Protein backbone atom coordinates (compact mmCIF):
# COMPACT_ATOMS: atom_id res chain seq x y z
CA UNK A 1 0.00 0.00 0.00
CA UNK A 2 2.86 2.41 0.80
CA UNK A 3 4.31 1.81 -2.64
CA UNK A 4 0.96 2.68 -4.27
CA UNK A 5 0.64 5.84 -2.14
CA UNK A 6 4.18 6.90 -3.04
CA UNK A 7 3.52 6.26 -6.72
CA UNK A 8 0.29 8.33 -6.59
CA UNK A 9 2.19 11.18 -4.96
CA UNK A 10 4.92 10.99 -7.59
CA UNK A 11 2.34 11.04 -10.35
CA UNK A 12 0.47 13.91 -8.73
CA UNK A 13 -2.70 11.91 -8.25
CA UNK A 14 -5.38 12.68 -5.73
CA UNK A 15 -5.33 10.94 -2.39
CA UNK A 16 -9.05 11.49 -1.84
CA UNK A 17 -11.14 8.81 -0.09
CA UNK A 18 -12.58 7.82 -3.49
CA UNK A 19 -9.06 7.12 -4.74
CA UNK A 20 -8.56 4.54 -2.00
CA UNK A 21 -12.01 3.01 -2.49
CA UNK A 22 -11.09 1.83 -5.96
CA UNK A 23 -12.58 4.74 -7.91
CA UNK A 24 -10.45 6.38 -10.55
CA UNK A 25 -7.97 8.82 -9.10
CA UNK A 26 -8.09 12.35 -10.50
CA UNK A 27 -4.95 14.40 -11.12
CA UNK A 28 -4.37 16.89 -8.33
CA UNK A 29 -3.40 20.38 -9.33
CA UNK A 30 -3.57 23.79 -7.71
CA UNK A 31 -5.73 25.02 -10.59
CA UNK A 32 -8.11 22.03 -10.46
CA UNK A 33 -11.51 23.02 -11.78
CA UNK A 34 -14.61 22.33 -9.73
CA UNK A 35 -17.10 19.86 -11.17
CA UNK A 36 -19.14 21.45 -13.95
CA UNK A 37 -22.55 22.70 -12.89
CA UNK A 38 -25.41 20.27 -13.16
CA UNK A 39 -28.03 21.52 -15.63
CA UNK A 40 -31.70 21.52 -14.77
CA UNK A 41 -33.57 18.46 -16.03
CA UNK A 42 -35.57 19.07 -19.19
CA UNK A 43 -37.53 15.82 -18.98
CA UNK A 44 -39.35 13.96 -16.23
CA UNK A 45 -37.20 13.69 -13.09
CA UNK A 46 -36.49 10.03 -12.28
CA UNK A 47 -33.81 10.43 -9.60
CA UNK A 48 -33.18 12.88 -6.79
CA UNK A 49 -29.91 12.78 -4.81
CA UNK A 50 -29.36 14.73 -1.59
CA UNK A 51 -27.18 14.66 1.49
CA UNK A 52 -23.43 15.11 1.41
CA UNK A 53 -23.07 16.22 -2.22
CA UNK A 54 -21.23 19.17 -3.71
CA UNK A 55 -22.99 19.62 -7.06
CA UNK A 56 -26.72 20.39 -7.09
CA UNK A 57 -29.32 21.84 -9.46
CA UNK A 58 -32.36 22.24 -7.18
CA UNK A 59 -31.58 23.72 -3.77
CA UNK A 60 -29.55 21.11 -1.89
CA UNK A 61 -30.43 18.25 -4.26
CA UNK A 62 -29.28 16.95 -7.62
CA UNK A 63 -32.23 16.01 -9.81
CA UNK A 64 -31.83 13.91 -12.96
CA UNK A 65 -33.95 13.02 -15.94
CA UNK A 66 -33.05 9.96 -18.02
CA UNK A 67 -31.01 11.91 -20.59
CA UNK A 68 -28.88 13.49 -17.84
CA UNK A 69 -28.09 10.07 -16.37
CA UNK A 70 -27.17 8.67 -19.78
CA UNK A 71 -24.82 11.62 -20.38
CA UNK A 72 -22.76 10.56 -17.36
CA UNK A 73 -21.81 7.45 -19.33
CA UNK A 74 -23.36 4.04 -19.63
CA UNK A 75 -21.82 0.59 -19.21
CA UNK A 76 -23.33 -2.87 -19.10
CA UNK A 77 -22.90 -6.40 -17.79
CA UNK A 78 -24.73 -9.68 -18.04
CA UNK A 79 -25.61 -11.61 -14.90
CA UNK A 80 -28.14 -14.02 -13.47
CA UNK A 81 -30.48 -12.65 -10.81
CA UNK A 82 -33.11 -14.14 -8.52
CA UNK A 83 -35.75 -11.93 -10.21
CA UNK A 84 -35.47 -13.03 -13.85
CA UNK A 85 -35.23 -16.39 -15.61
CA UNK A 86 -31.71 -16.84 -16.96
CA UNK A 87 -28.94 -14.26 -17.34
CA UNK A 88 -29.94 -10.75 -18.36
CA UNK A 89 -27.95 -7.77 -19.61
CA UNK A 90 -28.26 -4.57 -17.60
CA UNK A 91 -27.17 -1.21 -18.97
CA UNK A 92 -26.78 1.89 -16.88
CA UNK A 93 -24.60 4.39 -15.09
CA UNK A 94 -21.87 3.08 -12.79
CA UNK A 95 -22.85 4.19 -9.29
CA UNK A 96 -19.28 5.30 -8.55
CA UNK A 97 -19.35 7.58 -11.60
CA UNK A 98 -22.73 9.07 -10.60
CA UNK A 99 -21.47 9.88 -7.11
CA UNK A 100 -18.27 11.35 -8.51
CA UNK A 101 -20.29 13.60 -10.85
CA UNK A 102 -22.18 15.15 -7.94
CA UNK A 103 -19.17 15.42 -5.63
CA UNK A 104 -20.51 12.94 -3.06
CA UNK A 105 -18.59 12.74 0.21
CA UNK A 106 -19.76 10.01 2.51
CA UNK A 107 -19.55 6.44 3.68
CA UNK A 108 -22.97 5.16 2.65
CA UNK A 109 -26.03 5.84 0.54
CA UNK A 110 -29.65 5.30 1.53
CA UNK A 111 -31.54 4.13 -1.56
CA UNK A 112 -35.28 4.80 -1.44
CA UNK A 113 -37.74 3.24 -3.87
CA UNK A 114 -41.07 4.52 -5.17
CA UNK A 115 -42.88 2.28 -2.64
CA UNK A 116 -40.69 3.68 0.21
CA UNK A 117 -38.56 0.50 0.48
CA UNK A 118 -35.12 1.66 1.58
CA UNK A 119 -31.74 0.09 2.03
CA UNK A 120 -28.35 1.32 3.20
CA UNK A 121 -25.45 0.65 0.80
CA UNK A 122 -21.76 1.23 1.61
CA UNK A 123 -20.27 3.56 -1.00
CA UNK A 124 -17.21 1.26 -1.12
CA UNK A 125 -19.44 -1.37 -2.81
CA UNK A 126 -19.84 0.79 -5.90
CA UNK A 127 -16.21 0.73 -7.00
CA UNK A 128 -15.42 -2.68 -5.53
CA UNK A 129 -18.17 -4.47 -7.46
CA UNK A 130 -18.86 -2.06 -10.38
CA UNK A 131 -22.47 -1.62 -9.26
CA UNK A 132 -24.83 -0.19 -11.89
CA UNK A 133 -27.75 2.15 -11.69
CA UNK A 134 -29.54 0.24 -14.43
CA UNK A 135 -31.85 2.02 -16.84
CA UNK A 136 -32.18 -0.88 -19.29
CA UNK A 137 -32.62 -4.65 -19.20
CA UNK A 138 -31.86 -6.61 -22.36
CA UNK A 139 -31.83 -3.41 -24.43
CA UNK A 140 -35.19 -2.04 -23.21
CA UNK A 141 -35.75 0.79 -20.77
CA UNK A 142 -36.98 -0.44 -17.40
CA UNK A 143 -40.57 0.46 -16.61
CA UNK A 144 -42.19 0.65 -13.19
CA UNK A 145 -43.81 -2.74 -13.96
CA UNK A 146 -40.33 -4.15 -14.61
CA UNK A 147 -38.46 -2.81 -11.57
CA UNK A 148 -37.77 0.58 -13.18
CA UNK A 149 -37.25 3.23 -14.05
CA UNK A 150 -34.01 2.68 -12.08
CA UNK A 151 -32.62 -0.48 -10.49
CA UNK A 152 -29.40 -0.73 -8.45
CA UNK A 153 -27.79 -3.97 -9.67
CA UNK A 154 -24.66 -5.85 -8.68
CA UNK A 155 -22.85 -8.16 -11.13
CA UNK A 156 -23.89 -11.20 -9.09
CA UNK A 157 -22.04 -13.71 -11.28
CA UNK A 158 -18.70 -11.92 -10.80
CA UNK A 159 -18.25 -12.98 -7.17
CA UNK A 160 -19.95 -15.83 -5.26
CA UNK A 161 -20.30 -13.54 -2.21
CA UNK A 162 -22.74 -11.36 -4.20
CA UNK A 163 -25.24 -14.21 -4.46
CA UNK A 164 -26.56 -13.62 -0.97
CA UNK A 165 -29.46 -11.90 0.80
CA UNK A 166 -27.08 -9.10 1.87
CA UNK A 167 -26.44 -7.94 -1.69
CA UNK A 168 -29.86 -8.84 -3.06
CA UNK A 169 -31.31 -6.59 -0.33
CA UNK A 170 -29.09 -3.72 -1.45
CA UNK A 171 -30.41 -4.06 -5.00
CA UNK A 172 -33.17 -1.49 -4.81
CA UNK A 173 -35.55 -1.45 -7.76
CA UNK A 174 -38.02 1.30 -8.65
CA UNK A 175 -35.37 3.62 -7.21
CA UNK A 176 -36.49 7.24 -6.77
CA UNK A 177 -34.05 8.83 -4.32
CA UNK A 178 -30.55 8.55 -2.91
CA UNK A 179 -29.33 10.19 0.30
CA UNK A 180 -25.55 10.33 0.79
CA UNK A 181 -24.42 9.97 4.44
UniProtKB/TrEMBL annotation:
- Kindly list the organism's lineage: Bacteria, Pseudomonadati, Pseudomonadota, Alphaproteobacteria, Acetobacterales
Pfam families, per this entry?
A: Oxidored_molyb (PF00174)
This protein's record includes keyword Signal = yes
* Protein name as it appears in the record: Oxidoreductase molybdopterin-binding domain-containing protein
On whether Signal is a keyword of this UniProt record, the answer is yes
Q: Which UniProt keywords apply?
A: Signal
- For the Oxidoreductase molybdopterin-binding domain, which residue ranges apply? 79-155
Q: What is the source species?
A: Belnapia rosea
UniProt xrefs under InterPro entries: OxRdtase_Mopterin-bd_dom, OxRdtase_Mopterin-bd_sf
**Residues spanning the signal sequence:** 1-25
